[in-house]
Specification:
single chain, mainly alpha, two-stranded antiparallel ribbon, 4 strands
């Protein structure tokens, strides 16, 4: 593996250096280097995540806010940045050469320090599966080829690289027929990826290839007699990306959260609906998060707060909370609700006292947590566990992509393909959760500046007065940035955006089709949404909305 990796990364470096020294053929050299970068992607994206993120980051200012004394603002570089700089009408050679040097030097550093000595067989299986998932969730969406939309060709390169690496492990197969199945499946996937970016059938690719590959992967784990020391974001036995059994909720939880047991969920549900926890005994979590409205409240601005009430559904599959990401866990978010004078208007000590006055609660906590101590952390953990359980993955779309039924209309399928392709929705709302937590690592929930207007106005639009993330650390480059919410159950969560400015999905789609805020005359220096019009037809918009409506879950059990 190291020999193949060294050979490929060397070629990526060579072509970058050639581009730097011969700007006449800069496009050709860049594309060749990019091919070899894609060949090493399966290894690099798993074994050196931070360097991979640098090399493949979007052309958007990177702001890291640890606390008020540690705020880093870095200009991006890497292959995506180079693509945007090189494939444009007016080329800035000086800027391009600077980025070529940065990328080449980073690759040389990686090559020098790459170590494969610590790798075990399970590491290879993990990186192999991760690459398959990455192709499905970001590779075929245009996420990292924003200008050329060369994602399908690049996904073919990654698959071919996986096939090469798999051949190195030929002797691990007890069942030689299993290796043949892999080779045939990869060949068929590559063949099906030979398609037009805008018309590519992503729905059937995931249904018939990605899910089949996850099944083959599990068969390989058994065939090789491999065990894993722990689970990552996606469970080790997952065979679908669109299932309630796909995600390891512990990965997304606070490190002290413990296991999400059924008993803890039941206790958390009781607390979620208990109005006695608030100071006036008139408000519970469910007061603002109604199950019949997909755990929202249907209001433009939530009662007693300043922003639209987000859904609790799939909230546990994130890495940060509130629209401005000011909380790092569900347990942390609950503190803010408890102490907010317009919500529970109480404190953690009073919360505990209320629970201790109920003998049934005392028994429940003892049974669930296996000790006699009741403190605020256990109360918050129980509520958070119930919220984490609100990820059913049982919508019409899920049932179809998992082959449970065959009821999707062609319009709904077209909508998914557009959402993940031409409309570029999935470059921020990543499948299968369709929120901003970036697969396949699921380490970060993105915030974006899309230019949401104060009023539903396309003539004299002004940006919403809410400064979003800026209010947390006062970083100027983060004004009007908000966390990317899930699109799941959006058919039931109107009105939309942090300020509830849009009342229909049609209005939301019109906003995006125009190019976000930039398309309605709002000039935002750091807008992360591409300002170009999407040029979606009325039929295409109708199809996308049909797909979104197919993401509506059955919530009867909640």
């Amino acid at each position: 593996m190291k020999e193949q990796f060294t050979e490929d990364i060397s070629m990526a470096i060579t072509f970058l250096d050639s581009a730097k020294n011969n700007t006449t053929n800069i496009r050709e050299f860049f594309l060749e280097s990019r091919k070899f970068f894609k060949k090493i992607e399966p290894i690099l994206a798993s074994l050196d995540i931070e360097n991979y993120r640098f090399l493949n980051q979007p052309n958007i200012l990177k702001v890291e806010e640890e606390d008020y004394t540690d705020i880093k603002i870095n200009k991006p570089s890497g292959y995506q940045v180079l693509e945007e700089e090189i494939f444009t009408d007016s080329i800035d050679t000086t800027t391009i050469i600077k980025h070529l040097e940065l990328v080449s030097n980073r690759l040389k550093l990686i090559k020098k320090n790459a170590s494969f000595k610590h790798l075990k067989t399970y590491h290879f299986l993990w990186l192999f599966r991760k690459s398959v998932i990455q192709i499905a969730l970001t590779g075929v969406t245009g996420f990292d080829s924003p200008v050329l939309e060369n994602s399908l060709e690049e996904s073919k390169i990654v698959y071919q690289s996986l096939k090469t690496y798999l051949s190195i492990f030929e002797n691990e197969f007890k069942d030689p027929d299993l290796l043949k199945k892999w080779n045939d499946e990869i060949d068929t996937s590559i063949k099906d990826l030979t398609a037009n970016f805008n018309t590519f059938d992503r729905y059937n690719f995931i249904k018939n290839h990605t899910h089949k590959q996850l099944t083959l992967w599990n068969q390989t784990v058994s065939d090789w007699h491999v065990s894993f020391p722990f689970e990552l974001a996606i469970k080790n036995n997952a065979t679908s990306l669109f299932s309630a059994n796909t995600y390891n909720h512990t990965y997304f939880s606070d490190k002290n959260s413990g296991e999400m047991t059924p008993e803890k969920v039941v206790l958390g549900k009781k607390l979620f609906y208990d109005k006695n926890l608030s100071s006036g005994k008139k408000m519970s979590c469910a007061t603002c998060h109604h199950p019949d409205k997909a755990f929202t409240d249907g209001l433009k601005i939530g009662m007693g707060v300043t922003r639209n009430t987000p859904t609790m559904l799939y909230a546990g599959l994130q890495k940060s909370f509130f629209y401005d990401k000011r909380a790092g866990s569900l347990e942390g978010q609950i503190i803010a609700v408890v102490e907010n004078k317009n919500e529970f208007h109480t404190d953690l000590e009073s919360l505990v006292k209320t629970v201790l006055q109920d003998t049934l609660y005392i028994k429940n906590f003892k049974d669930v947590f296996k000790n006699n101590t009741i403190d605020n952390s256990k109360i918050r953990n129980a509520i958070a566990s119930y919220i984490r359980s609100l990820a059913p993955f049982n919508s019409k779309f899920d049932r179809n992509i998992n082959s449970i039924e065959n009821t999707l209309t062609q319009s709904e399928i077209n909508g998914f393909n557009l959402f993940n392709g031409k409309a570029k929705c999935a470059t921020c709302h990543f499948a299968p959760v369709f929120n901003g937590t970036v697969p396949p690592n699921y380490r970060e929930s993105e915030i974006e500046l899309i230019g949401v207007p104060e009023k539903n106005d396309t003539i004299n639009a002004t940006i919403s007065k809410d400064l979003g993330r800026y209010n947390v650390y006062k970083t100027p480059e983060r004004k009007h940035f908000f966390k990317t919410s899930t699109v799941r159950n959006a058919s039931k969560t109107a009105p939309y955006m942090h300020n509830g400015v849009y009342t229909t999905l049609q209005e939301v789609m019109d906003f995006y089709n125009r190019g976000g805020g930039a398309g309605i005359g709002i000039d935002s220096k750091y807008q992360t949404l591409p300002p170009d019009q999407l040029n979606l037809t009325k039929k295409e918009i109708k199809d996308i909305i049909a797909f979104i409506e197919a993401l509506e879950d059955n919530l009867s059990e909640y």
